[in-house]
Amino acid sequence: MLRRIAALIALSFAGQAFAATFIADSIPYAPEAKVADRISTECTELGKTFSQEIITQAKEQGIELQTAPADQLASQPNRVEIQITDIRSYGSAFTGHYKSINLQLTRYENGQPVASTKLNRRSLGGMGGMFKSSCSVLDRVTGTLSKDIAGWLKAPANAAPAPAEADSQAQ
Predict the structure, then answer these.
(1) C-alpha dihedral over 31, 82, 139, 146, to 10 degrees?
(2) What is d(CA 155, CA 151) in angstroms, rounded to the nearest whole number?
(3) Structural contact between residues 110 and 77, judged by C-beta atoms closer than 8 angstroms
(4) How far is CA 146 from CA 3, 41, 49, in A?
(5) Phi/psi of residue 161, nearest 5 degrees
(6) CA–CA dist 89, 107 (Å, integer)
(7) Which residues sit opposite 82 in a β-bridge?
(8) In terms of Cα–Cα distance, which of 126, 127, 122, 121 is closest to 149?
(9) Phi/psi of residue 3, nearest 5 degrees
(10) pLDDT for 69-92, tens place per residue?
């Protein structure tokens, strides 16, 4: 009987020790971010849909994330700060698209940084890319980056390449 009570107490403390991990409700641009003008004016929901896709992909990996307003994220002790540091947008429907996104990620536990990485993905739009909008092609890129982020969250040591090795392509 005493063992059962001790086990229940240990489980209750273990449940309390596992605190929620937060990300911003809309993935922000870094202060020094280089963002193509047409992207910042046309793709106004990019950060919000990106955040939602990250949560979906993390959940598929068995990781529960919650959102917090971007301006309040730093007050969360367990968080992943994700910033868009660069968005490139070249081409058009006539010449073909070239879109890329660079990210900086830092994971905090109990308010202390424990892991950091940089990720990059790019796309030419895929099948029928010339008929897609810039925002549609960037949604394709953020979808692939969301899977990369979920993999990194699951195993930061295995999935966090050195910055020079982080470049990869979303086909």
Answers:
(1) 170
(2) 6
(3) yes
(4) 43, 23, 11
(5) -70, 160
(6) 28
(7) 105
(8) 121
(9) -65, -40
(10) 999 999 999 999 999 999 988 876
pTM of the model: 0.77
Q: How far apart are CA 51 and CA 57, in angstroms?
A: 10
Strand partners, 131: none
pLDDT given for residue 125 in this prediction: 66
Amino acid identity at 14: A
Smallest CA-to-CA distance from 64 within 18, 120, 130 is with 18
pLDDT in tens, 2-50: 455 444 444 444 443 456 899 999 999 999 999 988 888 899 999 999 9
For residue 64, count CB atoms less than 10 angstroms from its CB and return exposed for 0-12, middle for 13-18, buried for 19 or more: exposed
Three-class SS state of 94: coil
Token pair 């596992």 is found at 18
Which two three-digit tokens encode residue 102? 């660079």
Helix residue ranges, H only, 28-159: 37-42, 46-60, 134-154, 156-159
Quote the tokens at residue 67.
Answer: 């959102």
